[in-house]
Design goal:
Largest sheet: 7 strands, mixed
Shape: globular
Strand content: 25-35%
Mean pLDDT: 96
Helix content: 25-40%
Distance between the termini: 57 Å
Number of helices: 17
Length: 704
């Protein structure tokens, strides 16, 4: 789909409002007389709670709420499962009752007249903990929380007949999502109307609505969810949080408006994390380096509880283990284990970076063991005809993997050399990612002034919906961009949607927008009845013309090829990424400028995982990263030049031909950089983050 506006690199029109300070984030909302909340959080990774004592006379305190106060009023958070697997039904409690399973778990909530008063009082609440031995390693845990296993094709025969069997082990550490704006929620309860209103910093309104209804035992029409401007999420604000449930329950219990705005320390220790996965991978190949079969055993560190979507990333990893390759037999097993750490959940990529890393690093090991160029072994095994059903059960809708790889090779300018000062290596990584799926909604309305109002069930938190959706709607109706207004995030105003995650906004939300506008055009044509009328005249002739659409689709599959050139300083082990090439196929690109921004942002997070990011816990299960002093992020100074390119193989599954672009950079970058590091080290493999000390030791090992 192309038009006057679709396909043009327009600047984000929402940026002026953001830069001029006209946004309204959660903490900007300051209801008069609100009770401010501070949580009493466990200092232990694993402990029994023998009692909680609240001292008398806490100044400025309205209430202290414990699990005992919520008994019969709330349920544990719901757990989302996946097809063909086993998932524990035990969700995260709103507040810990008899046991805590990670440091930072909320045990009690203090409601006070100010945030300072609440925090002071929280420090005086005395919890009698009986420390228990923590479990910190997924492989060493004895408690399975998820399990999935699939065998397709004659795997045993393939391995028995293979001329080469390559084995490799890989691990990706836990990461903290670290959005610019931490989490938060405000709730008020109107008892006469029995209406609970919740403002929440979240990725969408209707998943929060569904979670609140289930946990509180209320009907959805008795809850009003409003998502204001959101300062980033990266997956961490998708699933309803236990703190949000507490805020809502507290508002109903006390009759007060209740506010919680998370600080950075809380965000580090209590917001769910990403990754934390290990894998053992085996690849069977014949004498021509054709991939015959794959085996993989994946262990996921899920933390102390299942959050609503904790189980999903691991399943995505398992399902994508054949990647972009024509592998006809596969045996993949996933085990998600309980540990005494904060739960994991979707973080930008959510299982896709893990699959790409595990497979692409193994492919490089195979190339080295077989003495074949890493790009050649890939080219011999790429999927080339679509649609393609993988051995693990997903059907890829479209793609041009060979063109992605050719483009990446052309742009990266391969290097491999060493001298007394440094070693230089080049690496590549390919990926395929699931995007879209389920449904999304939109409503289009002709306003009295002849302009177009679009309400979308998809909700922005930095992606640029207000621009891309306006481009789609304006092109479809034949109006100017400034004549289109978008509204998001209010569960009482926007149609019910699934939300913004998994690179689905344009493919699903955008398709719903164009279908709603098309339906509106048909209604306008019926009103005009063959007459030539302006939109303003149509609105005057029949006020309130509107139409809605609900677009459903199977999954679409984006893909890409990334290349990296790195150097390691011999004396210090310091790693520099000299250049990064990102080639992505997201189908039809609506706005190339915004798409490139998504790629660069994702690449920055992928590079952060490679170079500096790791959520480290000590031997007692305490996080060592409660601030940026203990958890580093990449800065602009460390960002290398990023060369981007797009390959467009439109999806046949939606009217736009769109797939997804929001996560490609986070998926393709780690594998490319890891393979470049291994290339520089002469084939020695280590896992990220590639710290100076780790690389210094690796250089000595490689030299010996």
């Amino acid at each position: 789909m192309t038009g006057r506006l679709v396909g043009r690199p327009l600047r984000r029109r929402e940026d002026e409002r953001i830069l001029r300070g006209r946004t309204r984030y959660l903490d900007d909302i300051d209801p008069p007389g609100a009770a401010h909340v501070a949580f009493v959080r466990s200092p232990f990774a694993h402990a029994r709670i023998n009692g909680i004592e609240v001292p008398d006379g806490l100044e400025g305190v309205f209430a202290v709420i414990t699990a005992a106060d919520l008994e019969g009023r709330v349920r544990d958070l719901p757990v989302q499962g996946f097809e063909g697997g086993e998932v524990s039904a035990e969700g995260h409690p709103v507040l810990a009752g008899e046991e805590v399973r990670y440091a930072g778990q909320p045990v009690a909530a203090v409601l006070a007249e100010s945030r300072a008063a609440a925090e002071d009082a929280a420090e005086r609440v005395d919890v009698d903990y009986e420390p228990l031995e923590p479990v910190l390693d997924a492989r060493g845990s004895e408690v399975d929380m998820t399990r999935w296993h699939k065998v397709s094709g004659n795997v045993e025969a393939a391995f028995e007949s293979a001329e080469h069997v390559v084995r490799a082990g890989h691990a990706l550490p836990r990461l903290a999502p670290v959005p610019m704006e931490p989490r938060g929620a405000i709730a008020s309860y109107d008892e006469p109307d029995d209406m609970l209103t919740v403002w929440v910093s979240a990725q969408d309104s209707h998943r929060q609505l569904a979670g609140l209804a289930q946990v509180l035992g209320r009907t959805e029409d008795s809850i009003h969810v409003i998502v204001p401007d959101v300062g980033g999420a990266f997956g961490s604000k998708g699933a309803p949080a236990p703190e949000t449930m507490l805020i809502a329950a507290a508002a109903m219990t006390t009759g007060r408006t209740v506010k919680w705005a998370e600080d950075r320390e809380e965000n580090f220790v209590a917001s769910y994390q990403g990754r934390g996965v290990e894998a053992e991978v085996e690849l069977a190949l014949d004498g021509d380096a054709t991939m015959l079969a794959l085996r993989a055993r994946i262990w996921a560190d899920l933390g102390g509880y299942l959050m609503p979507t904790t189980a999903i990333p691991g399943h995505t990893t398992a399902m994508l283990m054949c990647g972009v390759y024509d592998i006809r037999a596969a045996d993949v097993e996933l085990v998600g284990r309980r540990t005494n750490k904060v739960p994991t959940g979707p973080y930008r990529g959510a299982g896709r970076p893990e699959a790409a890393y595990f497979l692409e690093c193994t492919v490089d090991v195979a190339a080295r063991e077989l003495g074949i160029d890493p790009l050649e072994i890939r080219r011999r095994n790429l999927i080339r005809e679509f649609p393609y059903e993988t051995a693990l059960g997903w059907t890829y809708d479209s793609g041009d993997y060979a063109r992605c790889l050719d483009t990446a090779e052309e742009l990266v300018k391969r290097e491999r050399h060493s001298d007394e000062v440094r070693v230089v290596g080049t690496g590549f990584g390919m990926y395929v990612e699931r995007a879209g799926g389920m449904f999304e909604t939109a409503e289009a309305e002709l306003l009295p002034n002849g302009k177009l109002l679009v309400r979308s069930g998809s909700s922005p938190h930095g992606q640029g919906h207000d621009t891309t959706f306006a481009q789609l709607a304006a092109d479809r109706l034949g109006v100017e961009l400034e004549d289109v207004e978008l509204r998001f995030g209010d569960s009482k105003e926007v149609p019910r949607g699934v939300g913004t995650f998994a690179s689905r906004s344009v493919a699903m939300g955008g398709s719903a927008v164009v279908q709603a506008v098309d339906a509106l055009k048909e209604k306008c044509a019926a009103v005009a009845a063959g007459r030539s009328m302006s939109l303003r005249e149509l609105a005057a002739a029949e006020p309130g013309i509107r139409a809605s659409a609900r677009f459903s689709s199977e999954l679409v599959f984006s893909s890409g090829a990334y290349g990296a050139v790195i150097e390691i300083e011999r004396a210090t082990g310091r790693l520099r990424v000299l250049r990064l090439v990102a080639v992505d196929d997201a189908g039809t690109i609506v706005n190339p400028l915004l798409a490139e921004g998504q790629v660069i942002g994702g690449s920055a997070q992928g590079l952060g995982q490679c170079l500096v990011e790791e959520a480290v816990y000590d031997e007692e299960g305490n996080p060592t990263f409660a601030s940026f002093a203990g958890y580093s992020l990449l800065t602009a100074a460390e960002m290398p030049p990023v060369v981007t390119a797009f390959v467009e193989s439109p999806s046949p599954l939606n009217p736009l031909g769109a797939k997804g672009i929001g996560e490609g950079g986070a998926i393709g970058t780690p594998a490319a950089v890891a393979n470049a590091v291994s290339d520089a080290l002469g084939g020695l493999r280590i896992d990220p983050p590639f710290t100076d000390a780790k690389l210094w030791r690796a250089l000595r090992e490689a030299d010996s």
